[in-house]
Amino acid sequence: MRLSVSPAFEAIAWLRLAASGRRHAVHGDPGPAARLALRDRDVALVAQALPTGGNGGYTLDLLTPKPWMGPVESLLDRQLGVMTETPPEAVADQLCAGRFPQGRMPVEVRSAMENGTFARRAANGLLRFWRFVFAESWPGVRSTLETDLAARFTVIGTAGIGRMLGTLHRDVGWTGSSLSIGTSAYQETFDLDGQELVLCPTAVGWPRLAAQCCDPNDAVLVYPANGLVPSRPASDSGLPELVGTSRAAILRDLDVARSTHELSTRWRLAPATVSYHLGVLLRSGLVSRRRDRRVVFYHRTEQGDAVLGLRAGVLQS
After folding, report:
1. d(Cα 100, Cα 81) in Å, to the nearest integer?
2. Which CATH class is domain 245-315?
3. Could you give the 3-state DSSP secondary structure of residue 210?
4. Is residue 286 within 8 Å of residue 239, measured between CB atoms?
5. Sites in the chain below the pLDDT cut of 50
6. CA gap 135, 266 in Å, rounded
7. What are the residue ranges spanned by the domains of the chain?
8. DSSP state, 24?
9. Mind telling me which SUPFAM superfamilies this protein's record contains (predicted)?
10. Residue 263 Ramachandran class (φ > 0 left, ψ -120 to 50 alpha, else beta)
11. Whole-number pLDDT of residue 306
């Protein structure tokens, strides 16, 4: 058993939201860039193969291969490589028996399946969506996922793997010899004796619980990351409240107005990561901003003070 982030799953979850025209309870609207990306032929191919409803529906296993061991920076490339190499018969089985069992397959999807180009085009589509849409959000999403993993590792170290498994989700249970994943959709039993099961937190897929166990060599359990809270916005933005340790540190540091560059230097974070966190804080009403010539400064609002427990400039424990 291993824990890891899954870049492919997070990007697919964001693409699925954009394709279905839905908003995320925490992260809000995927945005115009995501919808514009759907005009790309290969991105659209992936979107047509995704479930269009809410949290339910089968997502092709080949689109979310398990993350292999290695640096986080190389995980997406490895996942795209596995996706590209998916055998045509596996592609056909997942599309015909899994995603479109009633035979109502989009013409473009069927054509790519029959000429053997679906896997390659799907990997290309996901890569394009990542580069043009999701790459900017990934640092913030990754921070949330790694915060969750750190907490799980602490539980393992202090109470054991069994206790950690019991904290993943209310529908996940560990008996000491088997892992039960509650679902009303179907019932199946898989023997993973001697096989690796990778546990992956999801921020974009939150609050979804997803099990991928049909192929023992590609067994993944995706569970909702801790620390994500649906906001109750003052406006109709539907955007998130504060999540993640990096974002909390930045918010604490905004008792005086600071620029993105200054925060990046002070906290040794990439400018793109700081911009992502500031965008979330701004849309949540926790910070305000003002422009001074070419520089934009951010400052914590009274709502931000309240979130941190600040009263009259004093942090309450």
Report:
1. 25
2. mainly alpha
3. strand
4. no
5. 231-242, 311-317
6. 23
7. 2-224, 245-315
8. B
9. Winged helix' DNA-binding domain
10. alpha
11. 75
